[in-house]
Write a structure and sequence with these properties.
The structure holds two protein chains of two kinds. Chain A has nine helices and no strands. By secondary structure, chain A is mainly alpha-helical. Chain B starts with a helix and ends in a 20-residue tail after the last helix. Classes of the chains: A mainly alpha, B mainly alpha. At the A-B interface, helix 2, helix 3, helix 5 and helix 6 of A face helix 1 and helix 2 of B.
Chain lengths: ~210, ~90
């Protein structure tokens, strides 16, 4: 089955049976138009990638507000720096790289703020009540009471950064090992190792039944 | 239950869990995402700092360096040098 992807569209792409992933050739043409300053090309880029970038950020942050913020930052950065994009990596790789690195940076900043707020509250330096950001448990997990899925998501959030990114890109974004290696700027065997360790840790924690395997 | 049966059962549970993760409803940005990106771009463009005239002067290192240069060129350093005609210091009391 052949699947043509229009280079430019103004409204949201129509729902078709074709895979949502555009070819590298279509992306290269889009980049060329972006570098010429085409507003329509930028609109197309956002329409094409906004869901994936938002989902990636959401998977790493589990906060709709922070994911929105990161996704916006990614597209603003792309707009501002597209002139320097030389095409060493695929456009999608570059976008995923920006999204994951910004999401992790965002999370580190939030954790540091929380730690600082905790210590200042211990020292009694402020009388404000500690702000706990809402815990956005996954809608499906809430709806169907899938405690195991909730538990899995909670433990994914506790994985080391690189393992979490690799696991999320593999199991939520369904990227290939090669694509993940490109995003993380590492080798395929390093990705295999990251995923192996992530799965091992998660299996240990998620279900007692899986513990001995 | 044998060890191998438990193992395969655990594998099934794990695979099922990964399937649930992959097939969960995907989070999506709120409508009009592009409009908000445009607004952010416009806000960043208007907030971009313009270079101030003599902006480098505001950097402490440059300001200190400038101060030292002014002092050196103003001749105030002459007070620190011995006068040309002054007798050299005699270490011997006699």
């Amino acid at each position: 089955m052949t699947c043509s992807i229009p280079l430019l569209w103004v409204d949201d792409p129509p729902a078709t049976a074709c895979p949502a992933r555009p070819s590298e050739a279509a992306d290269a043409a889009l980049v060329a138009q972006l570098q010429q300053g085409s507003e329509a090309a930028f609109r197309t880029l956002v329409a094409r990638y906004q869901d994936r970038i938002y989902q990636t950020a959401f998977s790493l942050l589990r906060s709709a507000e922070e994911a929105e913020d990161v996704a916006q930052e990614v597209f603003v950065e792309v707009y501002q720096t597209i002139g320097r994009f030389r095409g060493e990596a695929a456009l999608s790789t570059w976008l995923y790289r920006l999204a994951t690195s910004r999401a992790l940076k965002n999370r580190r900043r939030t954790r540091a703020k929380k730690r600082f707020a905790f210590f200042t509250s211990l020292l009694g330096l402020d009388n404000e009540t500690l702000y706990e950001p809402p815990d956005h448990a996954h809608p499906q997990a809430l709806l169907e009471g899938r405690q195991q899925l909730q538990l899995l998501l909670a433990h994914i959030a506790r994985l080391p950064d690189q393992q979490q990114v690799a696991f999320t890109l593999r199991h939520e974004q369904e990227l290939s090992y090669e694509e993940i290696a490109a995003v993380l700027e590492t080798t395929v065997s390093a990705v295999e190792s990251l995923l192996f360790r992530a799965r091992q840790t998660l299996r240990k924690h998620v279900n007692p039944l899986l513990r001995n395997v | 239950m044998s060890d191998s049966a438990a193992r395969s059962n655990a594998d099934e549970v794990w695979d099922d869990l990964l399937d649930q993760l992959a097939t969960q409803p995907k989070a999506q940005p709120r409508p009009f995402f592009y409009t908000r990106v445009q607004a952010r771009l416009a806000a960043e463009a208007s907030a971009a700092p313009r270079p101030k005239p003599l902006g480098w002067l505001w950097r402490p290192a440059y300001a200190v360096l400038l101060g030292v240069l002014v002092l050196m060129l103003s001749g105030d350093g002459a007070a620190l040098r011995p006068a040309a005609g002054a007798a050299p210091y005699n270490a011997s009391p006699r």
